[in-house]
Design a protein that fits this description.
Helix content: 10-25%
Shape: globular
Number of domains: 5
CATH class of the largest domain: Alpha Beta
Largest sheet: 6 strands, antiparallel
Number of helices: 19
Structural class: alpha+beta
Radius of gyration: 29 Å
Number of strands: 44
Bound molecules: beta-D-mannopyranose
CATH superfamily of the largest domain: Glycosidases
CATH topology of the largest domain: TIM Barrel
Distance between the termini: 56 Å
């Protein structure tokens, strides 16, 4: 039944009587000291403008990050000239609104100082009524060097005590003291990215005019009990200072598919006072309806309603309207004892959405570009978030060293069903807590929370990245003054940020740090005794000294919110920013691009643990092999770790370990062509890991593994509720490396239970291999291949899976070829899909297909797989009309581990005579 509220006729896009004049577009950029005078863009940034003006080349080419560092040490002025209509000039209030200035700047209008900025995450507004004229207004943004400003603030603070770290690690080739500026922390360099300490007006600027009040934004909260919906809106109204009152109406309306669910209006009087320019108005309503909820990807549909809000002044001069999309959802962080009878066994940690518990499958997000003005490009965001959805993920963490992302980002997350774990932008540092800094943070938090609050995708807030662990474990030498830094920590994250979040959004939980021990962190005074405790909260887990392919080496946490291994991006990506002579392991370029200390050596060691690889530091072919093998190693290690976390969902050891509910690997995307933990390269190309993610996060998965006591098990994991009615049949095949014919095949069947992996096979591994006929060196001779049988009662695709038991063999030619390219057919989503036939003469491991770089990006249906049959059909999907069948045929190449090593070492291997095809 519809609510008993007044229903107005179609509510649409009525005229906004307050007037907004955009001041975006062409500005001028000046640096008199260097005689630089160029046209510039707003929104934009100085690196982009210098590049457009021909003063910089490709910023990411070779060593340009360092060559162009001078830019960050300069001061820059952005200027625009504009006229204002009489209509606007007559308004009582004229305000210039900066939606994002990066970062330290003085703002002048017609040579009069309007004010200063020093937080790129804050919207700044300056009243300008008295300074404006009809024509020739000159607006100037004088930006100070971020590196110089940061250093000055550091020195000022250090007169009392040092707020560390004094600088980033040398391997970052970065800049120091970014923690003193409220700007993207990674812009002074990170272990996966270059330093481009950005400068500019990175978001829109506008001139706003109104007589009474401007409606800035509205937060929404709802509750439902038996279809009785109760909604509360908090309107933020801006007025100039003054006396008296403004009377008007607040109107809220919710529309679905042209049907008005409700429209509600309420009278409201704003009492002006000379100190306050912002006023809150609340609006409550309740109604009965079968509203449809918004669900994360894989759990249901992403139902979005259209919502609009208005403030209409009674004297008719103001009618300000905001349109937004809204999804009904509840997210609750669940921390419950895993064993009611023994609370020392710890508590769960996961988000319950709409009352449902589910395994969080996801990834960590860094900004889509190192230059903030380029980080909201629609094509890039769409393709990255689509890749998240296509890999069956349901969560991304917007990591605290980057940006509060653009509105578009959260709109897409809503659309694709990707929940967001939203960090506040503080990472891997101690932070100052002076009064001005805190006031700025308070503004940042309340503005950002209000902006993001109505997005159903936003699931949890987190105060910072890793700073709790950093403080407790003395990463930055704070140990001797622990109490001092702890006090500052609590002042910033608890007294300032948490309070501000809770005052603004009562609908999501807040964790003080990512990771943390959840409630236990709170109980222990906000800095846990043992922040890495696996029985509480989430963990970050990195260990480069272990064999990443061995699942017994990983711990069993409640939630692993970061874990990862590095790989190199494809040779083609590196070639775009390198000279041919750079592409050897020993080059200055290869070491310059690696920001993780000892990272290149670690990659080699990891690769060598499982694959036969001999490093030749001066060979291009050898480096090409290392690139490929690093991607295999990364994909295999993260597959192993992620499947282990998914399997641990149903585990509960005597000590309380298990009930794992989340796996978010580090990291989805890249900001340049360099070794990193990403699964997608800077240009959008999927690394092998992303193809693997699509399989290891599949809704139904058969996962083979060996336990620490030598037992071979297969777990059947299901994120889908089949009501336990379905049985999944599968073959366990013991394969040798040289033959298509399995040495041994066992047929098995399993139940599928929602959120409760079922161990469907458990047997002694050595006995199993010996029965199979693997001989005296079984781990060198055999590997296991799991193939789900053809089935009819499960609609999801269940991927094949495999398990290697020891080091894998090297150079061998398989005769791999793409023998057929047919199509394309148009997919339901309007893309072109080609059908490919892959053939080989011998089993091939880690088969890797590539389409040449000159083609627009496309996706294979699978990649990096084990080919244990002679023929396999695959698809390649790309933009409509992007490529003809002939062009694709000519552009495809395929290799495998053995073929790659054979090509680079000149080895060959005899082909098997036997045949096994399906
Ligand atoms: C964690 C992250 C990032 C970092 C990653 C890899 O510390 O939060 O700071 O890039 O590990 O080292």
């Amino acid at each position: 039944m519809r609510p008993q509220l007044m229903v107005l006729a179609a509510l649409c896009c009525g005229s906004t009587l307050g007037i907004t004049q955009p001041l975006d577009g062409e500005w001028r950029l000046n640096n008199p000291g260097r005689a630089i005078h160029l046209p510039a863009r707003v929104p934009g940034g100085v690196y982009s403008d210098l590049q457009s003006g021909g003063l910089l080349n490709d910023t990411l080419y070779r060593f340009n990050d360092e060559e162009y560092r001078w830019v960050a040490y300069e001061n820059w002025t952005y200027t625009t000239t504009f006229n204002v209509s009489q209509n606007m000039l007559q308004k009582r209030h004229l305000v210039i609104v900066f939606h994002g200035v990066d970062t330290v700047a003085d703002i002048l209008l017609n040579d009069q100082m309007l004010g200063s900025t020093d937080n790129m995450f804050v919207r700044y507004q300056f009243p300008v009524k008295n300074l404006l004229r009809a024509s020739g207004n000159v607006l100037k943004v004088e930006l100070a060097s971020p590196t110089v400003s940061a250093a000055a603030r550091y020195r000022e603070q250090a007169r009392r005590y040092v707020v560390p770290p004094p600088c980033v690690d040398e391997a970052y080739h970065g800049e120091c003291h970014v923690n003193f500026l409220r700007k993207m922390q990674a812009s002074f360099a990170w272990d996966w990215g270059p330093a481009f300490p950005s400068v500019g007006v990175w978001r829109s600027v506008e001139l706003l005019s109104y007589d009474g009040a401007n409606l800035r934004d509205v937060t929404v909260r709802y509750t439902e009990v038996n279809k009785n919906i109760s909604m509360d809106f908090d309107y933020l109204l801006e007025t100039g200072t003054g006396e008296g009152q403004i009377e008007g109406k607040l109107v809220a309306s919710l529309v679905y598919n042209d049907t008005t669910v409700f429209t509600s209006e309420r009278n409201h009087t704003i009492k002006l006072n000379s100190n306050e320019t912002e006023h809150h108005a609340s609006h409550h309503l309740s109604f009965q309806d079968d509203i449809e909820l918004w669900y994360p990807n894989g759990l249901g549909k992403q139902k979005m309603y259209n919502m609009s809000f208005q403030f209409i002044s009674n004297n008719g001069t103001e009618k300000i309207q905001i349109h937004t999309r809204y999804g009904f959802v509840t997210h609750k962080l669940i921390e419950e004892p895993v064993d009611e009878k023994d609370v020392t066994k710890g508590t769960t940690f996961h988000i319950r959405t709409n009352g449902l518990d589910y395994f969080h499958k996801g990834v960590n997000w860094i900004p889509a570009n190192i230059l903030p003005e380029r980080a909201s490009d629609e094509k890039t965001l769409r393709s990255l978030l689509q890749a998240v959805r296509d890999a069956h993920m349901n969560i991304v963490r917007v990591w605290g060293g980057g940006l509060y992302e653009s509105d578009l980002f959260y709109d897409l997350a809503d659309e694709y069903g990707i929940t967001v774990w939203q960090d506040f932008m503080f990472a891997c540092s101690m932070y100052p807590v002076g009064a001005e800094f805190l006031a700025s943070v308070r503004a940042e938090v309340s503005q950002q929370v209000r902006r993001l609050q109505s997005h159903p995708s936003v699931a949890v807030w987190a105060g910072n990245n890793e700073n709790e662990g950093a403080l407790r474990d003395n990463w930055y030498g704070t140990g001797s003054d622990f109490q001092l830094y702890k006090k500052d920590y609590v002042t910033l994250y608890v007294d300032t940020i948490m309070k501000s979040v809770q005052a603004t959004d009562g609908t999501r939980d807040f964790v003080v740090s990512s990771p943390s021990n959840g409630w236990k962190t709170v109980k222990e005074g906000y800095v846990a005794e043992n922040p890495g405790d696996v029985l509480y909260g989430d963990i970050h887990y990195y260990n480069y000294d272990i064999n990443g392919w061995d699942s017994t080496r990983y711990s069993v946490p409640r939630f692993s919110s970061e874990y990862g291994f590095q790989s190199y991006p494809s040779l083609g990506s590196l070639q775009e920013v390198a000279e041919p002579s750079d592409l050897v392991f020993s080059s200055k370029f290869v070491s310059h691009r690696q920001h993780h200390p000892s990272g290149n050596d670690e990659i080699v060691q990891q690769v060598q643990r499982n694959m036969p690889f001999t490093l030749n530091e001066s060979s291009v072919e050898n480096f090409a092999s290392l690139i490929f093998l690093s991607q295999i190693n990364q994909a295999m290690s993260i597959k192993t770790e992620t499947e282990h976390y998914r399997r641990s969902q149903s585990l509960l050891t005597a000590a309380g370990q298990g009930r794992t509910m989340g796996a978010m690997y580090w990291q989805l995307n890249d900001v340049w062509q360099a070794p990193s933990w990403s699964s997608i390269e800077f240009d959008g190309r999927w690394k092998m890991l992303h193809y693997y993610a699509k399989n290891f996060f599949a809704p139904v998965l058969l996962s083979p593994y060996v336990t620490s006591d030598g037992s071979f098990e297969v777990a059947a994991i299901s994120d889908i509720d089949y009501n336990e009615t379905v049985r999944l049949n599968f073959d366990i095949m013991v394969m040798t490396y040289d033959s298509f014919t399995p040495l041994y095949t066992e047929q098995a069947a399993t139940r599928l239970v929602l959120n409760k992996p079922v161990i469907s096979i458990s047997k002694n591994m050595n006995n199993f291999l010996s029965t199979a006929g693997c001989g005296s060196e079984p781990t060198a001779k055999c590997f296991i291949y799991i193939r789900p049988a053809a089935f009819t009662d499960i609609i999801e695709e269940v991927p094949d899976n495999f398990l290697f038991l020891g080091r894998v063999p090297g150079a061998r030619r398989s005769g791999l070829a793409v023998s057929e390219v047919a199509g394309p057919n148009r997919t339901a989503s309007g893309e072109d899909r080609f059908s490919l036939l892959l053939t080989c003469d011998a089993p091939a491991l880690w088969v890797w297909l590539e389409a040449a770089r000159h083609l627009p990006p496309g996706r294979f249906s699978d990649n990096g797989f084990q080919l244990v049959v002679r023929r396999r059909r695959l698809t390649y999907t790309t933009a409509p009309g992007a490529v003809t069948t002939e062009q694709l045929r000519a552009a495809l190449s395929v290799t495998s581990l053995g073929d790659q090593l054979a090509a680079s070492s000149g080895h060959s291997h005899s082909l098997p005579a036997d045949v096994y095809t399906v």
